Amino acid sequence: MKKALLLSIILTLTMGLFAQNTKLKDAKPFEIKSGKVEYKIDGKTKGTKTLWWDDYGRLQHEYKKTSTKMMGITTKEETLNIRSSEWMYTINLIEKTGTKMSVDEAMKMTEALAGTSDEAELIKLGEDVKKDFDAKDVGTETILGHECIIMEIGKLNGKHWRHRGVTLKMEIIMGGFLGNYLEEAISFDQNLSVPSSKFEVPAGIKIEEVSMTNPFEIDVDEE
What's the per-residue H, E or C state across 73-140? Predict the structure, then answer.
């Protein structure tokens, strides 16, 4: 489980670090300054996702609405993940609740999970984890007119398509009653003027602050 989470971190955060010779917090997750991607989600879980970003991905707004039918039971989810300049929010829009962690704390947690904050060691760890999961770049494919690098992840039976750091497609073949999961971009706009309000928490959401240093101390406020 720890290694699976590390692989996810590598795909979303440290990829920027590797390319830029910089600290994790200051890394640019994407090579494109700003934009918007709309995705269609298919498989056992169906729905939509919209990603807005600015400042090369250091500001993000990800809205996701899905419905999953399994063993005759349908589960609906509506979530919002926001990364502002100071905070990372995870919000349940159905229950009107969420958590926040400072960006500094989140990066410390990532480094703690990796067991190091040294750039060279993080790079080596990333390559080791990719080998453990049999993850490797296997070619390119054009999606919505943009050339994507395809990463095949053997042990997860999945593939990941990225264009300049931005994911345009993700596929996981789980099989059995779990079925498959497909997330694919249906529109992709670059270098937009993104409203600052996209990186603010909607009104009426009860937010709990969590901390890596004080995990049992939770401050509740309403944004």
Answer: EEEEEEEEEEECCCEEEEEECCCCEEEEEEHHHHHHHHHHHHCCCCHHHHHHHHHHHHHHCCEEEEEE
Write out pLDDT tens, residues 160-185: 999 999 999 999 887 666 678 999 99
Contact in structure between 17 and 176 (CB atoms under 8 Å) = no
Global pTM reads 0.83
Specify the CATH class of 2-222 in words: mainly beta
Task: Name residues of the chain where pLDDT drops below 50.
Answer: 1-6, 13-21, 214-221
Burial of 36 (0-12, 13-18, 19+ CB in 10 A): middle
